[in-house]
């Protein structure tokens, strides 16, 4: 590979991450069964974001509530080494698209949670993207979750391919330590 090729690839990479144009079309996994999805998930990789910067040993617990909403409990050790948790709930906005949830952590703290692919018992790939109005900039969130504190490499590769189709490079993901 010539240096010019590498330079072009690098500039494309930075264009793709920092100044990504519009959010991609998001097609969640069909017929997601939210009940099977509940329980504990460990964060194995994430595209870093301002809310989770430096956090480790992150996990999420989802519980199906009697009213059909999903309780969300996120726990982590923050960058200062202090245990932190945040609680909220998630709702399926459109029953025809059960893989697309909206998560609420309080007033003005809403986000989307799109289950792109999961087998319920080993891995989940979650993606979210917000277009900033009147700009060419978007904010992306991406997570690779596991029922265990690790994931086999083959599964990680499969998850990376799913994110790559959305324009998320594995180079932009960071591994979340789970060794607390
Ligand atoms: C979930 O994460 C928190 C914070 O790292 C940790 O205290 C807790 O033990 C974890 N839960 C499990 C079941 O590993």
UniProtKB/TrEMBL annotation:
InterPro entries listed in its UniProt record: Calycin (IPR012674), Invtbrt_color (IPR003057), Lipocalin_ApoD (IPR022271), Lipocalin_CS (IPR022272), Lipocln_cytosolic_FA-bd_dom (IPR000566)
Places the protein is found: Secreted
Signal peptide segment: 1-20
Domain Lipocalin/cytosolic fatty-acid binding as annotated: residue spans: 32-177
Listed GO biological process terms: lipid metabolic process; response to reactive oxygen species
Gene3D superfamilies reported in the protein's UniProt record: 2.40.128.20
Keyword flag Glycoprotein: yes
A Gene Ontology molecular function term of the record: pigment binding
Keywords: Disulfide bond, Glycoprotein, Lipid-binding, Secreted, Signal, Transport
UniProt: substrate binding residues: 109
GO CC list: cytoplasm; extracellular region
Domain of life of the organism encoding this protein: Eukaryota
Family: Belongs to the calycin superfamily. Lipocalin family.
Name the UniProt record assigns to this protein: Apolipoprotein D
Organism of this sequence: Rotaria magnacalcarata
Classification of source organism: Eukaryota, Metazoa, Spiralia, Gnathifera, Rotifera
């Amino acid at each position: 590979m010539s240096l010019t090729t590498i330079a072009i690839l690098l500039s494309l990479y930075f264009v793709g991450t920092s100044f990504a144009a519009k959010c991609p079309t998001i097609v969640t996994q069909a017929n997601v069964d939210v009940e099977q999805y509940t329980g504990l998930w460990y964060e194995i990789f994430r595209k870093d974001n301002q809310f989770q910067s430096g956090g480790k040993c992150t996990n999420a617990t989802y519980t199906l509530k009697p009213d059909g909403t999903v309780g969300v409990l996120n726990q982590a050790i923050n960058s200062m080494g202090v245990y932190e948790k945040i609680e909220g709930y998630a709702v399926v906005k459109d029953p025809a698209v059960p893989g697309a949830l909206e998560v609420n952590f309080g007033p003005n703290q809403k986000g989307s949670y799109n289950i792109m692919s999961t087998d319920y018992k080993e891995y989940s790939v979650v993606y979210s993207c917000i277009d900033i109005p009147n700009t060419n900039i978007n904010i992306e969130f991406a997570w690779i979750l596991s029922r265990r504190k690790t994931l086999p490499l083959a599964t990680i590769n499969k998850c990376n391919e799913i994110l790559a189709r959305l324009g998320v490079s594995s180079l932009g993901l960071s591994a979340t330590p789970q060794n607390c």
